[in-house]
Each structure stands twice: as C-alpha cells, then as structure tokens.
UniProtKB/TrEMBL annotation:
Residues 9-65 form the HTH cro/C1-type domain. Pfam families: HTH_3, Peptidase_M78. It comes from the Bacteria. Belongs to the short-chain fatty acyl-CoA assimilation regulator (ScfR) family. InterPro entries: Cro/C1-type_HTH, IrrE_HExxH, Lambda_DNA-bd_dom_sf, Rad_response_metalloprotease. This is Zn-dependent peptidase ImmA, M78 family. PROSITE patterns: HTH_CROC1 (PS50943). SMART domains: HTH_XRE. It comes from Parapedobacter composti.
Amino acid sequence: MNQLFADRFKSARLLNGYSLQGLADALGNKVTKQALHKYEKGEVIPDSEKIALLSDVLHVRPDYFFREMKVELGAIEYRKLKRMPAKEEHKVIEQTREYLSRYLELEEILGIAQEFTNPLKDFPAVSHHEQVEEASMKLRQAWELGTGPIFNIPELFEDKHIKVVEIDADVSFDGMQTWVNDAIPIVAYNKNIADKLDRVRFTLLHELGHLLLKIDESLTETQKEKLCHQFAGAMLLPKSTLLEELGNHRSRLSVNELGNIKKQYGISMQALLMRANACGIVNSHYTSQFFNMMKQMGWRKEEPIAYEGVEQSNRFDQLLYRALAEELISVSKGAALKNMKISDFRSQSLVM
C-alpha cells in the first residue's frame, strides 16, 4: 500500500508540474518538503487531512492515490518532447497515463474488449510521396471514408479503437503517439492548439502516420516527418479530390479559393498549398512566392479564413453515463472516474 501511494503521489506531482519544494509552497508549507519526500519514497502514508490537502492542490480525488495504475506507455520518440522543459515532459506523460488509467478501468467495468487492427500492417515501408498517397487511399478505403471531407477526427479514431488524449501542455508541444500496454494505440494532442481546429486535425493525422506507417529506417528524422506531413495532407484531401477542386495545373491560386476549400475539408491554407505543390498542381517557385505573401500579411500564424467544425470525442462520457444508467457504478465511482468532486458530478449527472 505504501508503494502504491508513493507511485501515485509522484505521478500527481509530476502531472501538475511541481517540484517537491514547489508543492510544499503551494500547500502553504502545511506539509514540509521533507514530509513530501517521505511520501514519495513510500516511507509514510499521510493521514486523511493531509490527503485532502494534497488532493485539492494536485486537482485529483483522494481515491486517486490508492487506485492501481494499469497503464504502461510504450516508447515516445524524444523529438516530440525535446523542445520542452523536463517538468513539461513529465506533465505530458503523466496526464496521458492518468486519463488512460480511468478510461481503461471504465471499459473493464463495462466488459468492453477492444482489439485494434492496423489496415496498413502489410503495406511496405514507405520512403517517398507516391507510397504515402497510396497508403492514405488504402486506409480511407479500409475505413470506408470515400474521398470526401472527414468530420470529427477524434471521434473517428475512437470508433476505430484508437484512444485520443487531450493534453494541457506548453505550446511547443503539438502531439505524440504511442501504445498502451503493448496493445492499445493512442494519439495525444495539446488542447492549447484547439482554437485552430485545422491544426488539431493535421496533428492527429500526422501522428496517425507515425502510428500506422512503416517508414524506411534509412531516412533522416526530417524526411520521416515530411512523409507524415504528406500523409496527413493526403488523408485530409485525397489527390483525386484536390484535382477536382483546383484542376490539374495552375499558374496562380486565390486566397478565397483556398479558404473555401479549407472551410470544407478542414485543412489549413498552408497545408493545402503544400499539397497542391506535392501533387504537381503548382510549382515550387510559385509555392515559395505564395508563402512569402502569407508571411508578409501575417497569415502564417493566423490565417484569414477559419475552419469551423467539431473535433472532439464524447466516447468516454458516453460510456460513463451508460455505466451509471446500468447501475454498474455508483455516483461516487462515476465522480472518481471523471476526476470530479461528488457534488459537482452529481449536479451534471441526470439518470432516470
């Protein structure tokens, strides 16, 4: 029990980005750094009063500290986190583990066994753009997506048994992917980019490329990233559809034209421009000119036309309220799985 508390306490501390001294300060020194160190080493379990203090400051319920951690994350490529301070890296990892521990426990309560199948598992290792185009079409066909816009990518991933995790992280982090317990694929993205839904969509599909594609190991990291960029673009807007929208060859493109396609397909104007270049619709010289114009107009960070859609999965909440309705869990357990106070959870849980 001591070690379980110690491990969970450390996870909660890292999840919130605190050092031991920082946590002691946040607690108003009602618990000393030395005492916190003993908690983390498993030497002491605090009393209920101190657990309540820790719960408030660390934004978890008291039972969090005694819930078994059933989540083992696979390798996370360092390049995803290398621009972040160490404490931000820990926050990303622990937020992912904490959310998934609740999610997997909920599925276990409901008796849901999900097995992911990678439609691209037999596809050869990709090393160039044409293979990425082919792989994206193979995946669209396997998932019966046709060649039109994809709506609500997080919901699509969850339907295909890929867990989607929303992370509160430094803006230098976009997303990552890995496997949980060697069996469950996950994709995480930063909720602080959610004001730009086209960026969320591109990030999720980029990480999907890393998750599903076999990529030629002889390529550099930059080349691998480019292939996953191209995969995301191809998933958002297939080549055949792009040619229908823009034509086979163009000498010029209109900002409003690109903006209208963006609003329909949820792909940024910049990604759309790169897609047009990769598909041979516009040449590299014109692409560079267009990007320079966007930079001068201040549109590289904030494009003049926004994509408006819904990019959120409600599957966790749906399963939670199903478990409540079927009386498989109590209101107290529901609050624990939702990581909410019982009073707050009860006020929003209406079960007939």
